[in-house]
TrEMBL record:
The keyword Heme belongs to this UniProt entry's keyword annotation: no
Keyword Signal: yes
Organism: Kibdelosporangium banguiense
Domain ABC transporter substrate-binding protein PnrA-like: 80-372
Subcellular location: Cell membrane
Protein name: Basic membrane protein A
Length: 383
């Protein structure tokens, strides 16, 4: 049975003078601090004081790395459902491969794509095909490949594999590429609170699995950190085990439209290709939306809805794929981060379109608090 959760979180008291605001105007003199960087409180939320910091320090080093030659490599990419062109997760992986080709001279690549709800045998056959044709390294895009990567990597011990979103495969020729999705989602949660006119926002997940729950968890925590009285809708398109939730824009539209009809005026989606339907619902109902994985404001496949996309949570699969290929070519795999988080520039938020320029300093202040360990973001959603 589909697990569909719609959660309206009760108002949370903040120490001291924060009272329930709803859409009421602040009477002044209390503990509310205007957002840094020129933002306004037009949303009707009463905001928490903005943390100090946010000058931009604490990220990954911007030094120019040594040049690496990967021209002799044959790189294979096994995509998750949707493949190149999903405007999200897979496209980010594709961008990393494209950059490896241009920067490191990778000449031969092969890209294969998963089908919805396919068997383990199908996944293994795809990986086996790439390994048998001499491709190495091979990047499997998505945690659904975990069992198949483990099986095929044992058969081909001299082939190097990476798997995105999984670090459970403990073999010498397998590298896990995992992310702090909850940290990036926290930041776009803050953005949602500041941009909501009714202090009421929504989250749409593709499939109810622990990975997507990390997006939900961070988003909710970010919303509540910025605006403790905010209301949050939360729903998944399909339950665990039914991966069509990542490739069904029509259902994404229905779920998002339902949240908007209940009052959400900013909706964050972590739903793969189904996110296209979320954007369409937002545009059709005069709401705003937040993208995921890639900078979706600039994605051709969703350009008809770009005017409602205020930001995207950047999950830098492109960085991870590129850095992995580079590390294999340079024999420096041990240098890869254990987790691509805010500090490693593995997650973040997009500014394309200029719709969050007025709150960027506020977002960066929260970002620095997370990097410095002053805010710990949970990877499990609250109820």
């Amino acid at each position: 049975m589909r697990r569909s959760r719609v959660t309206t979180l009760a108002a949370v008291a903040l120490t001291g003078a924060l009272a329930l605001a709803g859409c009421a105007k602040d009477s002044g003199g209390g503990s509310t601090t205007p957002p840094a960087g020129g933002g306004t409180q037009a949303s009707g939320c009463k905001f928490s004081p903005v943390p100090s910091g946010g000058s931009g320090g604490g990220g990954a080093s911007s030094g120019t790395p040594a040049k690496v030659d990967a021209s002799a490599f044959k790189v294979g990419l096994a995509y998750d459902i949707g493949g190149r062109g999903d405007a999200s997760f897979n496209d980010s992986a594709a961008a990393g491969l494209d950059k490896a080709k241009s920067d490191m001279g990778v000449k031969e690549t092969k890209e294969l794509t998963a089908a919805p709800n396919e068997t383990e045998d199908a996944k293994q056959s795809r990986l086996r095909q790439l390994a048998g044709e001499g491709f190495s390294p091979i990047v499997a895009v998505g945690f659904a490949y975990a069992k198949s990567v483990e099986a095929v990597a044992k058969e081909f011990p001299n082939v190097k594999f990476a798997i995105v979103d999984d670090d459970t495969v403990k073999l010498p020729n397998v590298t896990g590429l995992v992310f702090a999705e909850e940290q990036g989602s926290f930041l776009v949660g803050v953005a949602a609170a500041y941009k909501s006119k009714g202090c009421h926002v929504g989250f749409v997940g593709g499939v109810n699995v622990p990975l997507i729950q990390k997006f939900e968890a961070g988003f909710k925590q970010g919303v509540k950190a910025a605006a403790p009285d905010a209301k949050i809708e939360s729903e998944y398109i399909t339950p665990a085990g039914d991966f069509t939730g990542f490739q069904d824009p029509a259902k994404g539209n229905v779920v998002a439209a339902g949240e908007i009809s209940r009052g959400a005026d900013v909706v964050y989606q972590a739903a793969g290709a189904s996110g296209k339907g979320v954007f369409e619902a937002a545009k059709g109902k005069n709401a705003l939306a937040i993208g995921v994985d890639s900078d979706q404001y600039n994605q051709k496949t969703v350009e008809n809805s770009k005017d409602v996309i205020i930001t995207s949570m950047l999950k830098r699969v492109d960085v991870a794929v590129y850095d992995y290929v580079r590390a294999v070519a340079g024999n420096t795999l041990s240098s890869l981060p254990k987790r691509f988080d805010l500090k490693a520039d593995g997650v973040g938020y997009a500014t394309s379109g200029g719709k969050i320029d007025d709150i960027k300093a506020t977002l960066d202040a929260y970002r620095q608090q997370i990097i410095d360990g002053k805010i710990t973001v949970s990877d499990k959603p609250s109820n």
